[in-house]
Amino acid sequence: MFRMCEDLENLYDLHMIFKLVEGIILLNSPSIFDKIFSDEFILDIIGALEYDPEVPRVQRHLASQGSCSF
User: Fold this and answer.
1) Residue 8 class from Cβ within 10 Å (0-12 exposed, 13-18 middle, 19+ buried)?
2) Where are any strands of DSSP class E within 1-70?
């Protein structure tokens, strides 16, 4: 869903996804961390955290730039 909202530049829903991800992280559960910080989800999690409604300008994450290596 995050990628679809980002492709459509739907800021309202991107802000909601940010709040959901933030809430999940604030649960501070190691089992949840293992899943959301896995290779499958980490880039989407990082991308979602860039849409903080309190920050006036959105920073583009590395995944959208096409050149990302770890």
Assistant:
1) exposed
2) none
Gap between the Cα atoms of 47 and 64, Å rounded:
9
Cβ–Cβ < 8 Å for 45, 3? no
Q: Read off the pLDDT of each residue in 27-49 and give the average, rounded to a whole number.
A: 94
**Cα separation, 51 vs 17, whole angstroms:** 8
Entry pTM: 0.77
- Cβ–Cβ under 8 Å, residues 18 and 53: yes
Per-residue pLDDT at 55 = 84
Q: Can you say whether residue 65 is alpha, beta or left, with left for phi > 0 and alpha for psi between -120 and 50 degrees?
A: alpha
